[in-house]
Design goal:
Length: 356
């Protein structure tokens, strides 16, 4: 990124300068190549609105699909009825700083993190915080829970990944930052802010991380260190996922925004689809595999401020969707059935897309 571009500072690097966004948009339109759109047949698009419009940073469907949790930049969490969009519960996180991630442990238990460095665990029906962890002098940007609910992980500004025992809520281990990373190095940690964490869904000991240092690291909790690194993707949001041992990474840049890598060796797939041929594309802040359909991802970002669904197996890309105010998209989440995806951003609106 050019040093002459003035960026509005924020906990997640997501309030982009309007002049910069307009400049990128004009450049991408001029460079537009052949369209790779495919007709996905969106069955319906609904809009849920909240009373707060200055930034929705994270959203998450409950496992049973009854609730949609929304984390905002004012430190508040709005939990909407997943059927009609009406407000069911409202939470205020510790520190009143932006909510940066939300994960449901169960349909009644929610875990939130914020840029105040706090991890809050909630009982939804009582709207009470039942436990809180404070990471002093840190801003948390990324969070995930492993597949057997034994551990959860957090990371952010201080470049350290912390692993907590869910039963005791005590720190289990810290995965420390390493030396300056390059394509040839074998780093043992991150050298810049971490914005994405993803546990492997079939192995509770494997964790994948990424951030501003242009490096994706793969960790084994039993070894407590990084055993594989992938150089290249510039991660600025929750844009790392894995399905069938294929890692997908979304970058906050104008080209090569979606890339696929083999988990077994960290090499980029050489099937002609990686990087996905997508121009113009948004600079990605959010990306996720569909939980059921192989190779399908949803992604959204800033620059041209669009949301798309991509078939990573054949490279087809859906028509673009936008928020009503056409501003940046910061977060998205699939429901557990994989037929509904919600996305949100710098707006009071959440778009709910149902796939046919």
């Amino acid at each position: 990124m050019s040093s002459t571009n003035k960026i509005i500072e924020s906990p997640r690097h997501i309030y982009d300068n309007e002049l910069m966004a307009e400049e990128i948009n004009e450049r991408l339109i001029e460079e537009k190549e052949e369209s790779y759109d495919f007709e996905l047949l969106f069955e319906s698009i609904k809009t849920y609105s909240i009373e707060y419009e200055n930034g929705i940073f994270c959203i998450s469907w409950s496992p049973n699909g009854l609730y949609l949790a929304i984390g905002c930049s004012d430190g508040g969490v709005r939990i909407l009825n997943g059927i009609n969009g009406k407000l069911s519960y409202k939470l205020s996180t510790t520190g009143s700083m932006p909510v940066t991630s939300i994960k449901w442990k169960s349909s009644l238990c929610l875990i939130t993190t914020s840029s105040s460095g706090c991890i809050d665990i909630w009982h939804i029906q009582s709207s009470k915080c039942i436990y809180s962890i404070n990471e002093e002098n840190n801003q948390i940007f990324a969070f995930d829970i492993n597949c057997n609910n034994k551990y959860f992980a957090s990371a952010g500004k201080d470049k350290i990944i912390r692993i907590y025992d869910d039963k005791t809520k005590k720190l289990y281990s810290s995965l420390e930052r390493g030396q300056f990373m390059s394509k040839q190095s074998n780093p043992n940690g991150h050298s810049n802010r971490i914005f994405s964490l993803k546990f492997k869904n079939d192995d509770p000991n494997i964790l994948i991380s990424g951030g501003w240092d242009n490096c994706i690291l793969i960790w084994d909790l039993r070894m407590k260190n990084c055993f594989r690194s992938i150089f290249g993707p510039h991660i600025a949001g929750n844009t790392i996922d894995i399905q069938n041992d294929i890692i997908v990474a979304g970058s906050w840049r104008i080209k090569n925004t979606v890339q696929l890598f083999q988990f077994s060796n960290g090499k980029e797939l050489k099937n002609g689809l990686s990087p996905i041929k997508w121009n113009p594309s948004p600079m990605l802040y959010s990306l996720s595999y569909n939980p059921l359909f192989e190779g399908m991802i949803a992604c959204g970002g800033t620059g041209i401020n669009t949301f798309n669904i991509i078939n990573t197996i054949n490279g087809q890309i859906s028509n673009s969707l936008q928020l009503k105010n056409k501003k940046g998209i910061y977060c998205l989440d699939w429901n557990s059935k994989g037929n509904i995806v919600a996305f949100a951003g710098h707006s009071c609106d959440v778009q709910i897309v149902t796939l046919k």
